Amino acid sequence: MIIFIDSYTEEKLANSLAGRPGYFKLFYDTENCGCNGVLAIEILDQPLDTDIRISVKNFTFLVDKQQESLFDDALKLEADRSYPSFKVSSDSALYSTNVRIKDARDMASK
Fold first, then answer.
1. Does residue 109 or residue 89 have the better pLDDT?
2. Which residues make beta-bridge pairs with 40?
3. Among 46, 76, 80, 109, which one is most buried in terms of CB atoms within 10 A?
4. Matching SUPFAM superfamilies, A to Z (predicted)?
5. Averaged confidence pLDDT in the chain
6. Pick from 24, 12, 17: which is nearest to 78 by CA?
């Protein structure tokens, strides 16, 4: 899998990390959803054993092996210039236009 980002998106991702290490996990969140899931991005301290790593410029994205088939081989991640969210798309699909980043680092210790 490949994820393409532009320089503005790269800046927004770096701001989300706030100078700390972390991994961006792209996944369908089904918790309390009652549906097929909502596309989300979480910042994690460490990948899980079932995660696939994807290098994107200075970042590492993660996708669970079980959810990898839900995405096309090449994705485009774009930061919204007027709202704190991202759009995830491919040449053949629009996955979501309102993807938020949730920082889940250090959650196990809280």
1. 89
2. 27
3. 76
4. HesB-like domain (SSF89360)
5. 92
6. 12
Which two structure tokens, joined as six digits, stand for 86?
């991202």
How far apart are the C-alpha atoms of 46 and 25, rounded to whole Å? 10
Rg (CA), the chain: 13
Contacts of residue 44, Cβ cutoff 8 Å, sequence gap at least 6: 22, 23, 25, 62, 104, 105
Q: Kindly report the number of other CB atoms within 10 A of residue 100's CB atom.
A: 14
Q: Which listed CATH number (2.60.300.12, 1.20.1640.10, 3.40.220.10, 3.40.50.2300) goes with 2-109? A: 2.60.300.12
pTM of structure = 0.90
Mean pLDDT on 49-70: 95
- What are the residue ranges spanned by the domains of the chain? 2-109
Phi, psi of 41 (to 5 degrees): -130, 125
Average pLDDT over residues 5-18: 97
Q: Exposed e or buried b for every residue in 32-63, given b needs 16+ CB within 10 A?
A: eeeeeebbbbbbbeebeeebeebebeebbbbb
